Amino acid sequence: MAKKLKALAGGSSETQLAQTIKDSAHQIWLAGLGAFAKAQEEGTKVFEALVKEGETIQKRTREAAEDKVAEARKVATGTWDKLESVFEERVARALNSLNVPTKKDIDALSARIHELTVATKKLSGTAQKEVGKAGEAVKEAVGETAEVVKITSKKVAASAKRVKVAAEKAVEEVKTDLAG
Fold this sequence. Notes:
This protein has three helices and no strands. With 180 residues, the protein is mainly α. The protein folds into two domains: 1-100, no CATH class; 101-166. The protein is rod-shaped and about 215 Å long.
């Protein structure tokens, strides 16, 4: 730039050089003002265009990010399910090695207890009926036995009277034979 200025000045005096520099600076100033004015005019249009493009890029970026998040969430869910399954399996094996019953074992035992309770109640009812029948049979047998004892007692009493009468008669006969 300095060579250009000297060439413009043509090697003349310093005053001319200063004037050339001053003119050149003034032209630069005017070019800057023109650029500023042009930028102001076109700046709004450019700014609006940049905002629209920024919105478009932001929308595409957001969609891409949401897709990536959904994909990552899907992968994480699958991984979490696998991890949970492995963990449950290992805990089950550890509990099994310690002979701790599983929920499945407890459910099976609960079902079996229920079945046995129903069967016990049924047998209990049957046993009570049988005991009732046996009690009735015992009462009947006791009644019959009492009747037999009563009849037998009467027969024994009658036989005892006959024996007594026969014994008295025999005593009288013996007395008579001895006296006579």
